[in-house]
Amino acid sequence: MTEPLLFELTSPGRVGCRLPAVDVPEAALPGDLLREDLPLPELSEREVVQHFTRLSQLNFSVDTGFYPLGSCTMKYNPKMHEDVARYPGFTQIHPRQDESTVQGALQLMCELQGYLGEITGLPAVSLQPVAGAHGELTGMLIIRAYHLERGDEDRNTVLVPDSAHGTNPATAAMCGYRVVTVPSDRRGNIDAQELDRLMDESVAGLMLTNPNTLGLFEEHILEVAEIVHGAGGLIYCDGANMNALLGISKPGELGTDVLHLNLHKTFSTPHGGGGPGGGATAVTEELGPFLPLPVVARRETKEAGAGRLEYYLDYDRPSSIGPVSGFFGNFGVMVKAYAYLRSLGESGLREVSEDAVLNANYVLHRLKEYYDLPYDRFCLHECVFSGTVQAKLGVHTIDIAKRLIDLGFHPPTVYFPLIVDEALMIEPTETESVETLDAFVAAMRQIAREAEEEPQVVRSAPESTPVGRLDEVAAAREPNLRWMG
Amino acid sequence: MSSYIPNTDSDRARMLKSVGLDSVPELFEVIPAEKRYPVLELPPPLSEMEVKRLLRGLAERNADLDHHPCFVGAGSYRHFVPSVVDHIVSRGEFYTAYTPYQPEVSQGTLTAIYEFQTMICALTGMDVANASMYDGATALAEAGLMACRSTRRHKLIVASTAHPNHRRVLRTYTQGMGIEVEDIGRAEDGDVNLSHARQLLDDGTAAIMVQHPNFLGCLEDLAPLSELAHAVGALLVVSVDPIALGLFKAPGDLGADIVVGEGQSLGSPPSYGGPYLGFFACREKYLRQLPGRLVGMTTDSEGRRGFVLTLQPREQHIRREKATSNICSNEALVALAAAVYLAVMGKQGLRHVAELCYHKAHYAVEEIASLSGYEKLLGRFFKEFVIRTPVPPAEVHQRLWERGIIGGYELGKDYPELAGCLLFCVTEMNSREEMDLLVETLKSIGEEK
């Protein structure tokens, strides 16, 4: 079953929303500027609702099933978040209102900055970046501004491990840096010797993900920090995997200078089909002056004898890199992250990471006899297998992924990290029950057996979906990117 | 124990046994001991009931637009959002999914993005549109970077009539890239100054960047800018208000090469500045330089139609440091809201919204300009207009608020020559009664002077 497009459902004269009549005298329209045709669809409200409801049913989602997409932290999204973020006092406020009329919003932002600073051990926080990669850009521009302000103008290189997310090198390039790749060692850590060799006065910093994209904690993290700092560089930590460390360890105490958080991952705000996210960026006290404009701050009111706090937008920050988005960031996302943190507190956050890590290790141990495990260590929040054993039988990771769909699961992240052949990156998160994990393990074991006994079943998957495997080559060769009738 | 975590202590014991450990903390022994299990000084955990009460309290400390007539825009607009929109984006199948990497189980999101792309092309008159950018400001910044890549040039000239914050974000984005950004002055009527643009333009210029209607509300004349830009091989980048495109010519028909804009007006509330929606469209010949995700139509082996993410070699997860941008997550759910909004408003509805804005704003400006001491400045406009006030704008603003009206953006901060002026915005949400209250209040402020 596929759903027709809006443009196939349209019928001239239909209206989906009635608006009031003009209640003022009509002004003359500037005839020379008016458009002749507006080629939008014409549908009744009922048809629009039916269309998009049917589309929604073509999606796999966290609400409908297990979604172990590695590095994406597809945890359950509390329904309460959706309700509180829709309070009119949050949605119906304008970013140009006087600060005195939005004290509740500013207080929420200021406190959220404080909580994130406490969790990361990096006390200066900006909520303005709206996605992980946006936080990376913010963070790397801060590192650049820091070096420039010190007159250290020749640092033109950023080091990025070969296991990094693609956003890391892309971000460094957007800041004008040359990117040099650092290899990983045999245990899945950054190769400290290579790092030491590459680290010199031309290097602005190292972009590190910890735990890294293998789901492994950097075993030599303190040594890595010493090497980078020793040569005058700074450490950027990609906090995409922070779900492993809440209340377990503070990146700021491990030598990190700048870190972004993915509010949509770690703080369950949720993912929205690919955004809106939140890319809050936390830095050391020393780097605080470089944060984007403005930062939310508080002070005692000037009213006599008041002693009360008032919240305000601090624009008086001459070293700032400037604003990174139109206003103050994705406020609606911040409300959800705030609700999550107030729900869980210290003990709840620690429990999140403990259970996320226990769940991942449980899956790792129950599958390692069936799939190749290139780095056989305890993992943190996710585990990375290789499908090379199955590939030799003619069943590739893409086939395993598609077969999982038929068995009722969203596939893990596949073919990433790049340093693992036929990679399968599984992140169960803390919100899945042991029964769900057992069912997933059973499905993965079934596929391993099928790869040996009846590979065609795996290779021809999925059979249960509204469309089968789609021709991506044709899509790219002759792009059809909009409906032309 | 958190209600979001199903594991019980007996589940954990069973799992630990399977893993071969005695306790959970043993899983973290890889972390240096002295850095392990720090104290987090956070407020104590609260129940759902308590969190809701707390947040309602914070929400009620904000003066919301449901209770206060609002006449400020300046980059964030209050337009009517039909109930349909929020009901669709509240479906868990949409909002708890992620980027549609597995197309067979993501046809809902992929189809909706394809429809969004199609409708953005229809509005802007462009050939291709991407799946979204973060907001209007970052869309403009990415358009500047793309123009530089496409032309292999390193200079952007930007209308000072474009949103001041969007121009600041452009400077933030370009600061490491060796790109020169220059501001084009303003003409008497509020439009970009063409002769100044001509002076700044040279064969090293990658693009002229302009906003239409501009920050001051004025309708820019795009055709001569297109001629100027194209004469030296530069691109014309236009940032637009998508609601205005319900009424006015598509920039694509006036020579624009890249059209971007803030899409919040299309079905999303002001939300104190976000989540918003950047939209990004261009002519087909620049397709390979486009940042962000794209959805394309294709078929499966049985010939059934389906949609996939396509042309991914432009993107960071494939091309890494050579990608067209670092963008990964965008504003998918806000783009879905825009698609639902455009579908439900449709051909007639969007034009109707634009006409209501136009007529009401023109009514308001006539009434205000007829008051003693108030003067309308600048030329043809859509829904925002500049008024010189008889008392300092900050005072007017404050006095309006004393009557519960949120009104007017003080222009002096960004345009010193307009220090005595307020920028007002009127949309279909402003009733005649509200406008009359605004006018009456302004009158009394002027008379008390």
Structural class of the helices, strands and pairings of chain B? Answer: alpha/beta
CATH topology group of the largest domain in chain B: Aspartate Aminotransferase, domain 2
Uncertain regions of chain B: pLDDT < 50 for 5+ in a row? none
* CATH-assigned fold name of the domain at 80-341 in chain A: Aspartate Aminotransferase, domain 2
| Strand count of chain A | 12
Shape of chain A: globular
How would you characterize the overall build of this protein?
The complex is a heterodimer of chains A (485) and B (449). Chain A has a domain of 262 residues: Type I PLP-dependent aspartate aminotransferase-like (Major domain) (Aspartate Aminotransferase, domain 2). The model of chain A has no long low-confidence stretch (mean pLDDT 97). In chain A, helix 3 runs antiparallel to helix 11. By secondary structure, chain A is an alpha/beta fold. The longest helix of chain A is centred in the C-terminal third of the chain and has 37 residues. In chain A, the strands form 3 sheets. Chain A has a 7-stranded mixed β-sheet with strand order 1-7-6-5-4-2-3, sandwiched between helices. Chain A is built from 16 helices and 12 strands. The N and C termini of chain B lie far apart (62 Å). Chain B is α/β, with parallel strands linked by helices and 449 residues long. Chain B has 2 domains: 111 residues, Aspartate Aminotransferase, domain 1, CATH 3.90.1150.10; 259 residues, Type I PLP-dependent aspartate aminotransferase-like (Major domain) (Aspartate Aminotransferase, domain 2), CATH 3.40.640. Chain B has 13 helices and 15 strands.
Write the topology of this structure.
The complex is a heterodimer of chains A (485) and B (449).
Chain A lengths: L5 H4 L35 H12 L22 H7 L2 H4 L11 H18 L3 E3 L5 H18 L7 E5 L5 H8 L3 E5 L9 H7 L4 E7 L11 H10 L3 E6 L18 E4 L1 H4 L14 E3 L11 E6 L8 E6 L16 H37 L15 E4 L1 H4 L5 H10 L6 E2 L8 E4 L7 H20 L1 H5 L12 H6 L8
Parallel strand pairs in A: 2-3, 2-4, 4-5, 5-6
Antiparallel strand pairs in A: 1-7, 6-7, 8-9, 10-12, 11-12
Helix pairs in contact in A: 3-11, 5-11, 6-7, 11-14
Chain B lengths: L8 H11 L28 H13 L9 E2 L11 H7 L2 H4 L11 H18 L3 E2 L6 H16 L3 E5 L4 H11 L5 E5 L9 H7 L4 E8 L9 H10 L3 E6 L17 E5 L15 E5 L12 E5 L5 E5 L6 H4 L12 H38 L5 E2 L7 E5 L4 H10 L3 E2 L1 E2 L10 E5 L6 H17 L1
Parallel strand pairs in B: 1-13, 3-4, 3-5, 5-6, 6-7
Antiparallel strand pairs in B: 2-8, 7-8, 9-10, 11-12, 12-15, 14-15
Helix pairs in contact in B: 3-11, 5-11, 6-7, 11-13
